[in-house]
Amino acid sequence: MNCIIIEDQPPAQRILKKYIEDIGSLQLKATFSDAIQAMNYLKSEKVDLIFLDIHLPKISGIDLLKTSDNLPPIVLTTAFADYALESYEFSVVDYLLKPFSFQRFVKAVSRVPTLDSIPKQPLGEAKESPSIRRELFIKSGYEHIKVLVDDIVYIKSDADYTEIFLPEKKLLSSESLRNWLEKLGNQQFIRVHKSYVINSAKIAKVVGNQIYTENGLVIPLGRAFRDNFSTRFLS
To answer: What is the 3-class SS of 85-144, one letter each residue?
Structure first.
């Protein structure tokens, strides 16, 4: 996805640029220190996602949301929690409270609708684009079951098969853990143990060598995988 940053503080710009580079699925097109410059850019350029600070010179991020139509998906970045409720009136994708971790950044990006198959228009042009989420069919027994990739919590290897854990059920598959990681990509999904691959967007916290998911499940963090995991999410 193509993205831009609207942020007037250089340290915050540097953090966002690093996270964007690390996540791999985003391409930074431009960085702006005020909203007016960004709005002029959006009149002619196609953007899939905006990282928007609230406290900006000239026009605040909230004022930008109030006065502009047909904006791309927005992830708000701010050091102030006071605007969270108001911001969601404008259907922002997520609200990142500074300082935020790479793990929290990944979670925000995972919430952005994927519009790969829909042409995108510059700001000001009419658009009617339904949200599309990645999906795949998992062969489980004699059935092929459609699953939204973002709904996968983790995958566990168990003898000659793997278990795909979803919020309310699990599916059995004959594919190996390595095949699943290749299929899903290693930006959102990461191997944390010889027997586990986890969706990083579903991580709630890490305590010692245990990873807790948002729905309270506990996944072991293997010693051989800890350094890679810590570099990506805990640094």
So the answer is: HHHHHHCCCEEEECCCCHHHHHHHHHCCCECCCCCCCCCCCCCCCCCECCEEEEEECCEE
pLDDT digits (tens, 9 = 90+) for 77-117: 988 776 666 665 676 888 888 888 888 898 888 888 764 43
Which residues are CB-contacts of 113 (< 8 A; sequence separation ≥ 6)? 73, 131, 132, 133
Report all structural domains of the chain as residue ranges with CATH numbers, in order of start: 2-110 (3.40.50.2300), 135-234 (2.40.50.1020)
Angle, vertex CA 149, rays to CA 165 and CA 174, nearest 5: 55
Whose structure tokens read 């960085």? 31
Predicted TM-score (pTM) of this structure: 0.51
DSSP one-letter string for 25-40? S-EEEEEESSHHHHHH
Torsion from C-alpha of 162, 163, 166, 170, nearest 10 degrees: 140
